Amino acid sequence: YLAKAITLFLATKASMQNRACYLINYSTNIETMELSSKDNAINLINFLVMSFNGGTDVAPALKEGLKKMQEDSFKQSDLIVISDGYFDDISQNLQQQMQDQGHKGNRFYLLDIEGYGDKKTFFDTHWVYDTNTQEATILYTMR
Fold first, then answer.
1. What is the distance between the alpha carbons of residues 8 and 126, in angstroms, rounded to a whole number?
2. How far apart are CA 142 and CA 8, in angstroms?
3. Per-residue pLDDT tens for 72-105?
4. Of 2, 3, 38, 100, which is least packed with CB atoms within 10 Å of its CB?
């Protein structure tokens, strides 16, 4: 529920700022949705009712995000992964692509709900949210 609430908040904030928003639901495969039409609210609700559980293979979602960042409306955009922290490190090649895209002004963030995973230094910032204390802390930041 927390991941869905955060997604709703970020999508609403992007809409209010007239920023492009592209959602990627991932587990063992990905489902995507671009929120750029007048039907955003209905589309967002339909996206949020999808399942967010199962395996966690973040690599296809990151690849999709990197592909989307090549489009004009997503240059210098941010990508945030919301996860329970259970995913393997990604390949060096994919990490290099993220770093290269970072040099173009894109940023990559990880919000780890419950903090079960190790520090992921291939993200610009890695936050951990503790549901018991309802506090987020920075586990890693490049800055």
1. 20
2. 27
3. 989 989 999 988 777 777 899 999 999 999 999 9
4. 38
